[in-house]
Structure formats: structure tokens, C-alpha cells
Amino acid sequence: MTAYDAIVLAGGAAKRLGGADKPGVSVGGRALLDRVLAACEGAARTVVVGGRRPTVRPVRWTREEPPGGGPLAALDAGVRCVEADHVLVLSADLPFLGEPTVRLLIETLTAGGREAVLLTDEDGRDQPLVAAYRAEPLRRELALLATEYGTLAGLPLRLLSHELDFARVDADPFASFDCDTWEDISTARARIREHGTVLDEWITAVKDELGIELDVDTRVLLDLARDAAHGVARPAAPLTTFLVGYAAARAGGGPEAVAEASRKAAALAARWADEAEDTGGTGSEGADAG
Fold first, then answer.
1. Which of 197, 200, 205, 235 has CB 3.0 to 4.6 Å from 290, enough for a Cys bridge?
2. Cβ neighbours of 13 (radius 10 Å)
3. What angle do CA 191, 194, 198 make, to 5 degrees?
4. pTM, whole model, 2 decimals?
């Protein structure tokens, strides 16, 4: 993917949240800002406009002038800190933004001749804070707006998109879901616990918490846990997956080491299951005893 820098706007008064520290609000055990930073971790440089705080990865910090001056002032502060020709611009309250959407925005901008690419939400509305911009046109229009109005503070964001030649893209309908109210926060927290997403959300949160940068096929581990539970005993499932991780670490780590350790353990569980069938057992007695 084309090299890009990212600007994340993490300021604002969060009035509809009662003045709460919105970037630090937890969804799925992770701060909203950290979730956005994870989605754009491929950026060469990430600039966060807002108050400094611990983050899941290193970023460069800056503030708008004046503080609380609004999104255009914040964007102008961020643009002054980037170097790439392509700039991803995001708000800090996007719990479901993922790397595929980031890739779509950057690749669409690179492939076309437009000055910007905006994501549209499920109602067809433009989202200028889930967008990719060419840096020079973005700087040009911010400078022109500052000259015309005397300041960028308090100006609506739509003034920028009105002046740029931009394309629109559709993506995951939840990619642009933002958290402006506590009801939005509750909706986001409930969605990540849905059956189709809860495991991925949990594994990602655990990896972030433990500082693990390892992508493995979780289906392999789940299948292994199932085989150990059915072929040996239910408590064998978590213990076996722990031992697989330990063995993979001793072998040097990485997805291949995990896959190989999982293969060996799964084969062993299968042999146990075969022996149980040969002797007329099912493994359930051991499971109940555990």
C-alpha cells in the first residue's frame, strides 16, 4: 500500500458525553483512541491532535490553536506535522474502523486523480473525518479558508469538502459509526459482544493488553481446544492451548511455530480420542471428573 501519514483528531469538548474524556472511553476493554490507532498502524507517521495520554503505540502529539478551536483548526495543526503525500484523517471515536477500510481509502486515493476520498455512511452522508487526502491540496484549502475567514477556529468542516475535488467510497457500514453519546457507547459495547464478533474482539484486546504482535489462525486454536476437550477432558482445552503457546515461544515464536505446535497437539488429541473409542470410553468421564 502507498505510504501515508495519519492525523487523528482527539480533541473536542464531548458535550453530549457530559464533558467526559471521549478518546479514553473504553469499548471492549480498549480506549476509543487506541482502537483507531490500531486501524491505522500502517501509517509512516501518526499525529494525534489533542491532550497527551498513554497510547497503544507511539504517536506524535500536537494541539490546535486556539485550544478547542474545532475540527478545521485541529486538522490544520495536524497537517503541519505530516510529511507524506497522502494523509489519512480520522476522528478518535470510531470503535469499528478497521485496516481494510483504511486500505480502501488510501488505495482509492492513489489510483484516482482526485484530491480526496471520503467514506460515506449507511445513509449516504459524507464523512470527512474518515477520509484520505492528498497533502498539498489539503494544505492549500486550509490556507485559503484561513485567509478568507481570518481564522479556522469555529468554522464547519463542510467548508473544506466543498472546495476539494473528492471521490466517495462505501465500506463496512459500521466503519464510520462514531460515539457522540452514551447511547452510542452502549451500542458499541453491545455490538462487540455479538456472537459473530466477540472472539475476534477479545483476542485483539488480549494481544494489545499483553503487547503481543502476532497474527495466528484462531480457528486452528479453537479446533485444537475442541479436540482436547472432547478427546481427553474439558479442562485439557485451556491447558493445551497454553502449552502450545509456550512451545511456540520456545521454538522462536511466529505464526508458523504456533501452527506447528497446534498440529502436533491436535494429532496427539486425536490419538487419545481413538484410544478412547477402542476401549469403549468417550472421554466424558474424565471431563466430568475434572
1. 235
2. 10
3. 100
4. 0.78
